[in-house]
Design a protein that fits this description.
Layout: H1 2-8, H2 10-13, H3 30-36, E1 43-52, E2 60-69, E3 72-79, E4 83-87, E5 92-96, E6 102-103, H4 110-123, H5 127-131, E7 134-140, E8 148-154, H6 159-162, E9 163-170, E10 174-181, E11 186-195, H7 203-210
Antiparallel strand pairs: 1-2, 1-11, 2-3, 3-4, 4-5, 5-6, 7-8, 8-9, 9-10, 10-11
Length: 211
C-alpha cells in the first residue's frame, strides 16, 4: 500500500503546478497562480525517489520514468526493482517485476483513493476539490524570484492520519515533492528531463496504459 500511496502523490506534482513562474511575487497566492496555469496535455520525465525510514539508517533510493496525460499516470520504476503503476483516479493497477498487472482494491485503501481523486482534481483545474481535503499555503521561493513553494496539510480523514504534510517546490515545472508522514518518515521525489512535446500520446505510450 505504501508503494502506491507515494506513487499517487505525483498527480499534484506533475499537473497544474506546471508553469507557475508567471505569478507575480509581490501579490502571490495559489489563486493567482492557478489562474495562470497552463498545464501541458502530456508531461513526460524522469524521477529519483529517496525515502528516509525510522528503522533503516540508510535511505532507500529508486528511479525511473513517468508519463502523465488525460489517460492518467503511468509510473515505471527501473531501479532497484522493476515495477509499474497506472492510476486514473478510479482504478489503480500495479505490476511488480515480471508479474501480471493487478488491480488494487481502492476500497481497502481509502488513503490511496483520496490521494488520487484529490490530485486528479488539480489536473482538471478543480481547486475546490483540493481545498476540501487540504489546507493550502502558497509561497514564493526563497532563492529565486520565479521559484515557488506549496505546502499542503491534510484536513480530512483518512489522509490526515497518514500524512503530516506535502511540500512542493519548483520554477517552470515541479522540481521536488516531499511527503512527510505521521510516523516521521520522509519521501523526497525529484524530477528531471521534463518534456511536453509531442503534445499528444504516441502509439507506444497509449499501449503502455493498456498493458
Amino acid at each position: 500500500m505504501r508503494v502506491v500511496l507515494y506513487g499517487a502523490a505525483f498527480f499534484l506534482a506533475l499537473s497544474s503546478i506546471a508553469r507557475a513562474q508567471d505569478a507575480q511575487t509581490d501579490d502571490v497566492s495559489f489563486d493567482t497562480v492557478s489562474a495562470k496555469l497552463a498545464a501541458p496535455a502530456v508531461l513526460r520525465g524522469s524521477f529519483k525517489q529517496t525515502r528516509h525510514l525510522q528503522l533503516i539508517s540508510k535511505p532507500l533510493q529508486s528511479s525511473g520514468r513517468f508519463l502523465l496525460s488525460d489517460m492518467g499516470l503511468y509510473w515505471e520504476q527501473d531501479e532497484p526493482l522493476k515495477s509499474v503503476m497506472i492510476a486514473d483516479g478510479e482504478r489503480l493497477l500495479q505490476r511488480i517485476g515480471d508479474g501480471p498487472l493487478q488491480s488494487i482494491d481502492v476500497a481497502q485503501n481509502p488513503v490511496v483513493l483520496t490521494f488520487s481523486q484529490s490530485f486528479l482534481s488539480i489536473f482538471k483545474g478543480s481547486e475546490d476539490e483540493l481545498r476540501s481535503h487540504f489546507d493550502l499555503e502558497f509561497l514564493p521561493g526563497d532563492d529565486e524570484a520565479d521559484g515557488w513553494n506549496i505546502v499542503l496539510t491534510p484536513t480530512s480523514y483518512p489522509m490526515s492520519e497518514a500524512i503530516a504534510s506535502i511540500n512542493i517546490s519548483g520554477r517552470e515545472y515541479i522540481e521536488e515533492l516531499k511527503v512527510n508522514s505521521r510516523s516521521s518518515e520522509e519521501t523526497i521525489i525529484s524530477f528531471s528531463n521534463l518534456q511536453t512535446e509531442p503534445d499528444e500520446l504516441t502509439e507506444h505510450e497509449i499501449e503502455l496504459y493498456a498493458r
